[in-house]
């Protein structure tokens, strides 16, 4: 057993000597270091989002039609918009192409969000006939001058949506602000923390399945493709076979050494992601840790093909190409299987049986009877 453990140790010595292990660990450390400052803070929903516009064209038309009535909320908002944006709105016609209309809508959102940050946006006389909600009235009773900047922007948002109830969706109070270090990234998102956790778990699932599962395996194959061909070089293999070792066990030792090498790197990466996501976002996903053995198992399958090609051709490049071809075959088979399921089998599989009087109605997975 000792000679085979020595072979595994030699694999790591080669990795250290060629700086492959150091480079992998440093790159993973840099990636984790860049991700660690990313987090979120609880905030108030103050910014206008694109989906808050119920009918953007009607809203812009109302502003334009009331441009001479500054005593109304629509005319008052129009008077505070920039001159350049007013010209853009005047040039928009019903037959204007969609791309340009969406550009104007994006600039309208930016203009209105800018107004929310202005301390004197709210005008009591202009909003005299507007019925504010309970949250806005509570903030108004506190005195606008005593509010924090975020609370004042929140009040301006509430006053704005109260003035245009048929054009602007009412917003919830709570939101999430993403930050990097202590600097906010973009506008806040009007979602709850529980929703953030659900979205975070979906993002983690995508990252692990697509990036780590596909790109990570490919990188692992690139890094380990030369292990077996180097062992089979005339000088190296002669030295190893001069010892009382079995050729199959020698091969398996090298194979196990490559898998162990990837296991250490995968553990560092995925455990680091698990700690960062839990620490910064409060998402302690045990399923993320279970991806470590799954990743190593998937790698071992592709690595077995790579090592088989290395034994036959003794070339690292050929091993990588054969592994890629094997991946392409697996991907094609999986895609064909899912296509057959969606097109043919799901239309016949029973998903539910509903009693209807003396008869039963069978529903398939596509919803047909």
Mean pLDDT: 83
Q: What's the total number of strands?
A: 5
Shape: elongated
Share of residues in strands: 5-15%
Structural Rg: 31 Å
What is the H-and-E element order?
HHEHHHHHHEEHHHHHHEE
Taking the alpha carbons of the first and last residues, their distance comes to 63 Å
Structural class: mainly alpha
Contiguous runs where pLDDT drops below 50 for at least 5 residues: none
The percentage helix is 55-70%
Our count of domains comes out at 2
- Give the helix tally: 14
Largest sheet: 3 strands, antiparallel
Enumerate the strands of the largest sheet in spatial order, edge to edge or round the barrel.
Answer: 1-2-3
Compose a concise summary of this entry:
The protein is mainly α.
Structure characterization notes:
It is a single chain. With about 375 residues, this protein is mainly alpha-helical. The chain has two domains: about 1-40 and about 200-315; about 50-170, no CATH class. The chain has 14 helices and five strands. It has helices spanning about 1-15, 20-35, 55-65, 75-80, 85-90, 100-115, 135-140, 150-165, 195-225, 225-230, 235-240, 245-280, 285-315, 315-345; strands at about 40-45, 175-180, 185, 350-355, 360-365. It has a three-stranded antiparallel beta sheet with strand order 1-2-3, sandwiched between helices. Strands 4-5 form a two-stranded antiparallel ribbon. Helix 3 crosses helix 4 (about 75-80) and helix 12 (about 245-280) runs antiparallel to helix 13.
